[in-house]
């Protein structure tokens, strides 16, 4: 027994010696990284407060005035040059620090989702009279990206080395395609690499992709009339919408299987005894190949016209959003994965464990071990072919600059995005801990890139090859329309 204790003790002292030796031989760059990680730990409360404030604001797409301003003020205080209201969007901004190459861009988002106002509690508790909620955790997204950019700025300032960090305040990710306008106006033209992240229920940095997406509101106009006394004089706009939906639902059998099409009827008339003169349906279509998406979209437009013709109504549509699929970059994703391993996952305290267990109980078949929040998923470069079912306007950025992202466990493992569970976790310490994991990983990855032109060159070569030759020309899927600033009004 005594022998055993001695053995353990000697093993422990050997381990601590090895650790000391490791610290002593760590490269200056590794030491800088550790300093950044330590600094972000020190500033945890400050950033948690900012993210909670944005969570409380819960502002919907293109209306994120207070959220955007809060982040801008933080950046100004830190010495960034802030250019606000870019690309025709009042709540968009780009903040810059430093000069010369390389130029590293970091994306931040801060829009909330309609209908997801929920308290930061482990049971369903909607907030009355509040329009939106941070079910996608963009309150954490914007804050972590700003925190990372500030660390990079501190390093640039201290080291005196050349390099520029740009943080992009990107509004209306949820269906508003905010970044598309920023890409279209050339705000990413001088950037070497773009970093982003997203709140998630797991820690992972893969070279995965997303679906290209196009969406529009189809507006049918008919003729109002008494539905019982003079129905023959009316033409129902709702009939137009329903006929269109019927045709689209038939079409599902005759399109590539991996297509996604979904709709909601946003206006369908006011009273059954009035033939509706106006009706509106909001469509999303998605596919990982944007050329296929475009051909499906043409058929959706044809269905709208056919529906109008058959029902004696008129139809017009407004394309509100359109985004590219994400172009994965294995070179950059490998680097991010290595850095996330250095940072580590999310460790719950006792209180957070209780919160997480309660949430886990509500997840049904998706329930997972809450300790998964501490793990980092294995790197899977084969996941280039893996596609998330979602879409993001980061996709457009990734076609004009080599781009890489990561996800961190801001939500209880097994939670889905856009749920009350993800809204709740985004407003308390579980979300905030995941946010700091993201900030640390982004900051030290930017530091690596600032000091390693060879990796930037390699990432760029991979990107050029995947993008398909030098003749690629970016054209926004939403055409030349102006930002749909009122799409949430
Ligand atoms: Zn999101």
UniProtKB/TrEMBL annotation:
InterPro entries xref list: Amidohydrolase, Aminobenzoyl-glu_utiliz_pB, Bact_exopeptidase_dim_dom, Peptidase_M20, Peptidase_M20/M20A_hydrolases, Peptidase_M20_dimer
Stretches assigned to the Peptidase M20 dimerisation domain: 215-305
Keyword list, A-Z: Hydrolase, Signal
Coiled coil region boundaries: none
Domain of life: Bacteria
Secretion signal, residue range per the UniProt entry: 1-18
Keyword DNA repair: no
Name of the protein: Amidohydrolase
Organism: Flectobacillus longus
């Amino acid at each position: 027994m005594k022998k055993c204790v001695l053995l353990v003790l000697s093993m422990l002292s050997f381990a601590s010696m090895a650790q000391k030796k490791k610290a002593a031989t760590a490269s200056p760059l590794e030491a800088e990284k550790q300093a950044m990680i330590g600094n972000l730990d020190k500033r945890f409360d400050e950033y948690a407060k900012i993210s909670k404030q944005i969570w409380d604001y819960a502002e919907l797409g293109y209306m994120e005035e207070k959220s955007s301003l809060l982040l801008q003020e933080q950046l100004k205080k830190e010495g960034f040059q802030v250019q606000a209201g870019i690309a025709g969007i009042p709540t968009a901004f780009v903040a810059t620090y430093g000069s010369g190459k390389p130029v590293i861009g970091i994306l931040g988002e801060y829009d909330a989702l309609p209908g997801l106002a929920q308290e930061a509690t482990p049971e369903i508790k909607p907030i009355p009279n509040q329009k939106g909620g941070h079910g996608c955790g963009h309150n954490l997204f914007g804050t972590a990206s700003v925190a990372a950019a500030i660390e990079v700025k501190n390093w640039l300032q201290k080291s005196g080395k050349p390099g520029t960090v740009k943080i992009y305040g990107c509004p209306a990710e949820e269906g508003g395609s905010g970044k598309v306008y920023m890409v279209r106006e050339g705000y990413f033209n001088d950037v070497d690499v773009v970093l982003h992240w997203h709140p998630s229920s797991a820690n992972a940095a893969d070279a995965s992709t997303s679906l290209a997406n196009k969406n529009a509101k189809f507006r049918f106009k008919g003729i109002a009339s008494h539905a019982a006394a003079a129905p023959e004089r009316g033409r129902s706009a709702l009939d137009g919408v329903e006929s269109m939906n019927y045709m689209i639902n038939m079409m599902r059998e005759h399109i590539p299987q991996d297509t996604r099409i979904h709709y909601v009827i946003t206006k369908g008339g006011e009273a059954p005894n009035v033939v509706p003169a106006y009706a509106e349906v909001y469509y999303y279509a998605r596919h990982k190949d944007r050329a296929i998406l475009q051909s499906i979209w043409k058929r959706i437009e044809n269905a709208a016209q056919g529906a109008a013709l058959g029902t004696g109504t008129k139809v017009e549509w407004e394309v509100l959003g359109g985004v590219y699929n994400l172009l994965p970059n294995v070179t950059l994703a490998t680097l991010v994965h290595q850095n996330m391993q250095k940072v580590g996952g999310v460790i719950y305290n006792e209180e957070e464990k209780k919160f997480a267990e309660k949430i886990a109980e509500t997840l049904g078949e998706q329930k997972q071990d809450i300790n998964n929040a501490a793990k980092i998923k294995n790197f899977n470069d084969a996941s280039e072919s893996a596609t998330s079912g979602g879409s993001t306007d980061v996709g457009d950025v990734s076609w004009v600059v080599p781009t890489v992202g990561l996800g961190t466990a801001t939500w209880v493992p097994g939670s889905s995005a856009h749920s009350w569970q993800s809204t709740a976790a985004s407003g308390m310490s579980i979300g905030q801990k995941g946010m700091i994991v993201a900030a640390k990983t982004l900051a030290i990855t930017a530091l690596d890139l600032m000091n390693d032109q060879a990796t930037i060159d390699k990432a760029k070569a991979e990107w050029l090859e995947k993008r398909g030759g030098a003749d690629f020309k970016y054209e926004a899927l939403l055409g030349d329309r102006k930002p749909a600033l009122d799409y949430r009004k």
